[in-house]
Amino acid sequence: MSSPLTQTVHWDLTYDVHLGSTWGRFMQGLREQKILANSCPECSRTFVPPQAYCESCFVRTEQWTELPAEGDLEVFTVVWQGFTGGPKPPYAVGGIRLAGADTLLMHVVTGLDFSDPSTVRDQLPHGSRVRAVWAEDRTGQILDISHFEPAG
Amino acid sequence: MAQRAAVVGVGITDATSPRKQTRSHLELCQEAAWAAIEHAGVSPAELDGVVVGNIDGFEGTVLGGKHITRLLGLGTHLPMVVLNTGGTTGGNLMQVAARMVRAGTHQRVLCLGGPTFFGVRDLQSAINTNSPMIVEQPLGMGGFHMGAFAASAYQARHGTTVEDLASVVVADHQKASRNPYAHLRYTLSETDVVEGTPLSSPLTQPMVCPVSTSAAAMVVASEDVAAARRTPSALIRAMGTSSDPYLGGGKGDFAVMENLAALARRVYALADVRDPRAEFDVVEVFAPYVHMQPMQLEALGFCGAGEGIDLIRSGATDAGGDLPTNLSGGPKCTNAGVAGELAPYAYTALQVMGDAPEAIQVPGARTGLAHGTGGSFFQFENLAVFSQLTPQEQ
Amino acid sequence: MTNRVRPGPVHVVGLSCTPLLAEQDAVLDELVFDAVSAALSECALRKSDVGLSVLASMDVPDGRSISSGLTTAAAAGYLSDSYRLEADSGSAVAAAAQAVAAGDVEIAIAVGVHNPEHHAEDDAGRRRFLEQLSNLAFEPAFDRPVGMTAQTVYGMQAAHALHSGEVSLDDWAELSAAAITRGATGRRPGRSGPVTAADVLASAPVVSPLLDLMLPAPVTGAAAVVLASPARAARLLGRSAVLTGIGQATGDHTWTGDWLTRPGATTARAAADAYQNAELVDPGAEVAVVELSAPTPALHGPYLAALQLQGLAPERVSPSGGLASAHAGLANGIIRLLEAVEWLEQHQPRGRAVVHSVDTITGTVSEESTVVVVEGI
Predict the structure, then answer these.
(1) A60 pLDDT higher than 50
(2) N or C: which end of chain B has fewer CB within 10 A?
(3) ipTM score of the complex?
(4) What's the pLDDT score for residue B135?
(5) Do C227 and C337 fall within a single domain?
(6) Which residue, A37, A120, A45, A21, is CA-closest to A71?
């Protein structure tokens, strides 16, 4: 079979993504090593990352609180095969329930021994305690939290 | 005046990898569209609308569906609607087309899904562009990485082993080996699956869908048009969609598909389905990653929590079982993006029409359930219930 | 061509629009939420009343693939029926209305949002980005490499029209100046006025023969409409208007040349369906006002003729100023509907209006056109 005829098509788009006031405030908090959450005035759920509105009650969120930089690792996966432009595998990404939050904060998780793929799940069982490690240089973005590591 | 809608024609092309595919995106779409029109027994001039799907960025085009559709040669100035809801685009095509017909303003609408993943060099990096920007995208997640979250949580909840997961893959490949339109038509052993290349724990390469190229199309028409055909059509008895929050973290519990369960209750109520296990003759779910099929079977009310894999292992979901599921081999063995998302609807409609490929046709199938899911962390779900509509007495 | 059945009427009970600004300091979903919650408030409905929400937006300006993932919950779609069209919001109105006419839902929402994830200092910068995206929406093997964009299409169509000798650049300058001036005194101006024809002719050349003030004024924002069945509408506060006819059509590809020589053909096809549904026999006599979406003055005449409204008095054609005053991308269709309904409320509470919208993604190439007939009650 002859090889199919293709043409290279490349996209090069640069964006300035609007943060808005809600995520803007969250990102400013990260610079100051604070994890800020907000809450729905009707159902009282607490969101981190914060939300401008509650999708369920369909009202604007109000009250802001600072959450501890520690929580339970509810779920994670180890990425053995990544993607172009992404982090270098293997790396682990997890869903963290910070104390007082009704949502999960997704972040990079460290402290795993990657030498044997079959053992990784047991190294950090469901509910393991993890804590945020702050980046040295913080610029107001999610990776101002460098990663979460096991909290002993 | 409001009227009922039915699927009266289906076209599916055969599938292969992007590397081996010699036909272009346009040629595949043309083949599927014309096959659906021919199967429906309508002429292109009789169409009064087209609903087409695309996922910008995955395809290297913006509104790719728009120019593809104009090149099909289906007449000028035909109303065309471009839909993009990510992984539910294919399934939602019919939701939009059916409403056009049900409103009474349209009689024959073509739904078209092309090979979305045809051309992109690194699909996982393309999929990362739909990861919630700013807060979740920088963490490095593509499609199967997001999928792996649920697999990992399901394992933790139910003690599921990798061998359990592998058994689902083995069953899917058995089914695909009989479907002439499937992409991966080889069979596998549990050992092959367990020892496959690790991708994102606990998923190995054989537990994840291939990147396929194919196209699919359907003609949705009014009940009157359907009843005038010589062979059965697939009446759309009920349908619906549902959405979770945007952020993966908003799901709360990755080990259970609550959004799908809620949608199923709503759609079953519309169709007056009371005992889903007994009432459906055939089911096609969109399960590109291995853990999804058992979790979906649970959410759809076919078994209890954590019992999905036992149900699959029991043979109930095989050909000849009481709940034949994904006899096409499902997206686990063929996934061309929008075409793959439309496939559960296309195959289920074919089954209740009695026109599925002979080797996978469920004898006497009259009621079927089709499902779709997608978006970041599988945020969106869609469902439809089909019933056989027999030709009018002449 | 087919035995069409007239759909049941669909009522407009809520309509709203965020402020239209050059750029919004907001995430897309916040704009959607603001528009949808304001439209629901108008008719005292809540999220749980909504049977279907249809969103119009596009991934590339939104800077995300599957951007509807972000915006669906804000469109009242959490745990309920919703989908997103990559089309002008006029198409979203049509899809939402179909769900009501089908008897599938009692309340449906359509919403359009436009706030490109791009920062620019001026309109020229904003257009440069939208033009880059437009180029990506052209056919990749032939049209894209040679630099086709919406503006190049509009420029060619205008040049072709001038060549016919039936119109002049001065006529267009008068049209654009009048539209900008009218819009500047309206509720949602994107350009300030008054502006004279001489000002228009003195503005910067953008794509010959078109000049800066002849092109749409790029603004951003979101707009939403709440639709209801007749029975449900009878028990609701809010707007009092009915959609009696909707038609849609999509134009032909580059290669046929229709986009150049018959730019009104798509709108004519959409109008034929809408007028038939609305039982509108003599549009010139029965329509009080039209909200037209002409991206350039060169399309003003062809679109009006396609709508059979060329006899309408000039002040009854886009009294809002139309796109020359403010153009909010895919949110446009619902904004035109809002302008038409507001005009009826103020001038002819029982009058009939025609709402015309087109997408401007690839100019008149593959153009989608929506025509809606709306009546005050």
Answers:
(1) yes
(2) C
(3) 0.94
(4) 67
(5) no
(6) A37
CA gap B309, C294 in Å, rounded: 58
For residue B371, give the 3-state DSSP assignment: strand
Read off the pLDDT of residues C154-186 as tens digits, 9 standing for 90 and up. 999 999 999 888 999 999 999 999 999 999 999
For residue B263, the one-letter residue type is L
Q: What is the pTM of this model?
A: 0.93
Which residues from chain C sit within 8 angstroms of residue B132, using beta carbons?
Answer: 69-70
**Domain B5-121+210-389 classification at class level:** alpha beta
Q: Is residue C2 part of a domain?
A: no
> Across-strand partners of A59?
A54
Pick from A19, A48, A75: CB nearest B254: A75
Whether residues C209 and C342 share a domain: the answer is: yes
Q: What is the pLDDT of residue C4?
A: 47
Cα Rg of chain C (Å, integer)? 19
Q: Which domain holds residue C52?
A: 10-116+220-233
Contact in structure between C363 and C259 (CB atoms under 8 Å): yes
Q: Does residue C135 lie within any of the structural domains?
A: no
Name residues whose C-beta falls within 8 Å of residue C225's C-beta, 6 or more positions apart in sequence: C12, C14, C15, C39, C93, C96, C109, C110, C111, C334, C337, C338
Q: Choose the closest CB to B77 out of C104, C250, C277.
A: C250
- Say whether B243 and C251 touch across the interface (CB within 8 A): no
pLDDT of C139 higher than 90: no
C360 three-state secondary structure: coil
Give the pLDDT of residue B126.
Answer: 66
- Residue C292 burial by CB count (10 A; 0-12/13-18/19+): exposed, middle or buried? buried
Residue C127 lies in a domain: no
Chains that touch A (3 or more CB pairs under 8 A): B, C
Do C191 and C257 share a structural domain? yes
- Interchain contact, A93 vs B139, CB within 8 Å: yes
Contact A18 C26 (CB under 8 A): yes
pLDDT along chain B (394 residues), means of 10: 95 93 88 96 92 81 76 80 92 96 95 84 68 68 80 93 97 98 97 94 92 96 95 98 86 89 98 97 97 98 98 97 98 95 98 98 98 91 97 66
Please tell me if residue B62 touches chain A, with a CB cutoff of 8 Å: no
Convert the pLDDT of each residue in B156-185 to its tens digit.
Answer: 999 999 999 999 999 999 999 999 999 999
Task: Check the CA dihedral B15-B19-B20-B22 and report its sign.
Answer: positive
